[in-house]
Amino acid sequence: MALSLSPIVADTGTIYATQTDATSAIDPLKASAGVLYKVEINNADNPSPVFVKLFNSANPLAVTVGTTAPEWVFKCPASVTRVYSAPKGSAFSAGLLACCVTTPGTGGTANPTNDVVYRILLG
After folding, report:
1. Please, which residues bridge with residue 27 across strands?
2. Where are the domains of the chain?
3. Order of strands, sheet of 72-76, starting from the edge strand that comes earlier in the sequence
4. Triad 6, 9, 13: Cα angle to 5°
5. Strands (E), 44-93
6. For position 68, what pLDDT does the model report?
7. Which of 34, 8, 10, 19 is nearest to 93 (CA)?
8. What is the mean pLDDT of the chain?
9. I want to staple 68 with a disulfide (CB 3.0 to 4.6 A). Which of 26, 49, 63, 86 is the partner?
10. Statement: residue 114 has pLDDT above 80
11. How many helices (H) and strands (E) does the chain have?
């Protein structure tokens, strides 16, 4: 797993989280309140859709993938890249955690077959 957090210069957000091998493992993106601006999902290497789930929590131990309801779920169809933008942002109050699975909604814990890359812009 290769998660990186980088400051952004001259952009809407201040943190650009990039995960190059997204799985059902929880990635801590931000440990405090903030704003979600953009989610980009590259699912080019998979024959099935994937779902990036975001949780409004600063504590990875408070989230059980497949049981805890996510705040947001972003679908990326098979073999493509999708970008979801919220130019004015969407606020979260506690922090932000992310994971990527093959099932929409709350349920599902299966990892994608091949690498999925996500990039998330936060403020």
Report:
1. 98
2. 3-122
3. 27-30, 96-101, 50-55, 72-76
4. 70
5. 50-55, 72-76, 81-92
6. 98
7. 34
8. 93
9. 63
10. yes
11. 0, 9
Tokens 């999925």: give the residue.
116
pLDDT number for residue 4? 78
Tokens representing 115 are: 């690498």
pTM, to two decimals: 0.90
Domain 3-122 has CATH 3.30.930.10: no
Confirm if 78 and 42 have CB atoms less than 8 A apart. Answer: no
Q: Which two tokens stand for residue 46?
A: 């998979």
Answer positive or negative: Cα dihedral of 9, 13, 19, 20: negative
pLDDT grade, residue 87 (50/70/90)? confident
Give the per-residue pLDDT at 89. 93
